[in-house]
Amino acid sequence: MLAETTLQEPAASVEPAELKQRATLLRASGGPEETRTLVDAVQDLATAVMSRPHDWELLNGFAVHLQKLQMFDEAVVFHVKAINNSEREQHPQLYVNLGLAMRGQGSHEAAVELFETVLAAHPDMVDAAVNLSSTLNFLKDFGRSIEVCRRTLALVEAPELYHNIGNALHRSPGRGAEAAAAFERAVELDPTNSRSKHMLALLRNEAMDTVPPEFVAGLFDDYASHFETDLIEKLRYRVPGLVRRYLLKAASGRPRFASVLDLGCGTGLVGLMLRDVADFQKGVDISRNMLAKALEKRVYDQIEAVNLQESLGEIDRAYSVAVAADVCGYIGRLDGFVAKVSDVLEDGGLFVFSVEECFLDDFEVSTAGRFAHRRSYVEKALADAGFEVLTAAREQLRVNAGRPVFGTIFVARKPA
Hints:
By secondary structure, this protein is of the alpha/beta class. It is 52% helix and 15% strand. The protein is globular and about 70 Å long.
């Protein structure tokens, strides 16, 4: 679990430089246990900082790692210490790092001021311009975001700036053609840029079966720090409560479940709703930042970083229940996904999930880049995988731009 990080006494047998290198190697090791190795890396850096409390590189590295653990208040403190112990030539990047930590705290306006200060002194600093325009896009100040990108692009070209200006133009009425041109240039500069390719496909109304996993991961990594505030307070998100209601209704007379697999668990809202009726819960998600938030809730016995378009993760048991709250919004063609879910369920196991509704095609993608599905198509995908539909309840899932978004909560049973 993500416990509070404290500075420990330095280990006599390991030099600070070696601790720093070990932390870097731990962070790079990746894999399902990355969150655990990240905590270990932070502990190494904390020990090194105790030995060299005025080493700006160590202080900055420590702060960056704290950000990855979503410990933004602590990260701000150590970013400031890094700035205070560094020379002026290091300040631009260190101020950008501090701005990112402040943004993680939710202090978006303060982060904007910091990025603007750096960019005023260094107008060709792409990192400052990218983070400033991203923050302005989040604040829906699209005009300023466009201006920032164009000023910097006049000095240096960067695919990230074209992507950000494309996002701002896309969300400005009547500027779709300009947005497409920006995304096209981003892809020309970086042909591996899946986020810009995805947005370009949306603007061109190209058919697609899934949202690229890199796009989903990046979206939710950026969104993690304010995800719940937006979802619960602004969008009045109802899906976790609906999942609980319809699961317990479908399993009437069954007070507990041996095991629950929460697919696309995010920050753990569904896990929170089901903890009291599950003996064991595992959460999987593509976004490591979201998983870090989920860990803080302590509602999962196990978590894993997983791209659900490829697999459902390491499976060491047959699950009583699988849940996919809002996952289908990023998967168009559901057949393969539903079949994988069937494979990990015990006989008689339940699959509970939500879809947004559409009425013409089997599935379609909105201007926001999310998929909606026709009820008859979902029912056929379930039937083809051997599921029996127990519940298909039309509900308001959330609001968007002040308007209700409707969809269906499905509960399906794998044959016993």
